Amino acid sequence: MSYNLLKISDDPLHGTITPHQCYILLHSSRPISEFVSKHTTPVQRALQLRATQWGGLVNFTWYGQTPPKEADGRGKVKQPATAFTVAGGRLEIPDISLENMDDVEQQLKAHIEGPIEKMTSEEIHIYVCTHGARDCRCGNIGSQVVQALRREKGAYQQQHPRGLASRIKIGEVSHVGGHKFAANMIMLPHGEWFGRMKPEDASMVIRDVCNRPVTPLGHSPPLIPHHWRGRLGHSKSQTTELWDTYIKSGNAK
């Protein structure tokens, strides 16, 4: 089914994300398309219960191929994760388990405070919700957008072999909220959330992200304004204030 046959909301986008200080992505060994409507695991539930207390959101991501299953010394399969905060940037966690949850929580809470990790500028992460079992619009349009982003990344990388395109990681994620705004996309470490993305937007996204610093945006103007839903680290009032200030400046694109 083509995306233009699906009903997509035309409600305002800015201020439609859950305010959060930390976004945590558990690496999945299965495609998001195989998830049930409300996919969860014991680790995800335990971590989200704690993270709710300090502004963290926990989700799942799949990078387009099944990662090798690494086991610890007891033969237990590891659960790696990637986390992002404004002050700390990107953090890679090799393994999260029920047994080390206390240590992981302290690590994440410290990461919220900073300083920024040096690795942050080394990679650009773009995530698109493709959770079709939760809402068909995400599965349909989201999958088309992911495919288009991967094509455009490859094309841009061929044209600019020494550019940032080689450092872009494109992942699919499970439910992010606001499926009526499908396709939903998150750009990190910049911290930007977008809605109503279409396959034809992919070229603009890749070109734009490859020509700006790889860092959390803080209070900079929104990227891709008419698709902008909000930003990591911003409250709803801060999001509205940033949007109003930007629109009044006359620089909306």
Explain briefly what this protein structure is.
By secondary structure, the chain is an alpha+beta fold.
Mean pLDDT across all residues, rounded?
Answer: 91
DSSP, total strands: 9
Q: Name the poorly predicted regions.
A: 1-6
Order of helices and strands: EHEEEHEHEEEHEH
The biggest sheet amounts to: 9 strands, mixed
Shape: globular
| Share of helical residues | 25-40%
Class inferred from helices and paired strands = alpha+beta
Strand content: 15-25%
Radius of gyration (CA) equals: 18 Å
The largest beta-sheet arranges its strands as 4-3-1-2-6-5-7-8-9
Distance between the amino and carboxyl termini: 30 Å
Number of helices: 5
Can you walk through the features of this model?
With 253 residues, this protein is of the alpha+beta class. Helix 3 links the parallel strand 5 and strand 6. The N terminus is likely disordered.
